[in-house]
């Protein structure tokens, strides 16, 4: 049981050495040749120093030591009470305490995962999954919780009190997720007229004029001929990409060149397509071109040319806060006759002079992007997602995609929320709004 102490000591030594090396590095004058410039997208410019990293690791190690000491203390006290202090048998079959009292039996609080939960995560779990009351707008009412009982793992219970806080924990980018005078009344009207849920897929009885109106509006907003909406943003990628690659689900002979940091929904969709996948380093245009050049010259492993090559990128990578290099990507797409799939989940409505996403922001015509994907969960304060593309592709998606055929349709109030927010962004209503 001494290994936690060794970890703490090693982390402290590492922190001291890192601080010394970091201080020496800052004291030296850097010549232009000694520090070659890095690519802009290689690493974040605000990368923490070795000292900061080591300091964080040492704190983590100290928390582990604290947890082990508490476990030993509990085992010691329990052993003394039962007459067998620090007995291995007692520690493995000790009394397991729960919300309903205590019982004697196998100790379920064993193993690293449970140790981490009890001794580390439970200390800070109140920072996440915090219940709210009222609207989730630019500010919100948090329900105050306190621990009932002793110890880090004591349950958090409601106190009946609330606290007004600034909302920095959502992607309600434009504030439409709260009560908005230009949007909320139409949503309430849709709720009264159509109810809370469609209770059917759009291929059956879940399709309404409001759904078709939103599809036409988002297509016009993106200057695309057609669009399809789906009830979940994740499912838009995961269920429509396979059908986009091939309507029969056989992606053999198709190459997908995907940014290494693409969202997991894209990864799931690509996996389900059956196509060959070749990731390229994040925003690395040289690597992307090398893959495209080889794919064009060499073709498939069998020697046959690829049926199609699809480049998949995101407009804004939310975890990195970076734009894709869309101009260069479009140039490579045209040079090697590939198709381009652009996920604008985090950029649509939020960037660009007209709020039309990264294409608008970078001045790239939407005609240069073959398939444009986005969600209504960020800038529009609703749910669901869309794909805008050619009428032929949209018809193919509606005929074959499980996300359209079998999943419940977006509820009409949610559709109306997205539609009304879109009209405000476009300035299509009577109010002096819009981008």
TrEMBL record:
Signal peptide: none annotated. It catalyses: L-serine + hexadecanoyl-CoA + H(+) = 3-oxosphinganine + CO2 + CoA. Keywords: Pyridoxal phosphate, Transferase. Residues 165-422 form the Aminotransferase class I/classII large domain. Its cofactor is pyridoxal 5'-phosphate. Its EC number is 2.3.1.50. GO terms for biological process: ceramide biosynthetic process; sphingosine biosynthetic process. This is serine C-palmitoyltransferase. It comes from Calcidiscus leptoporus.
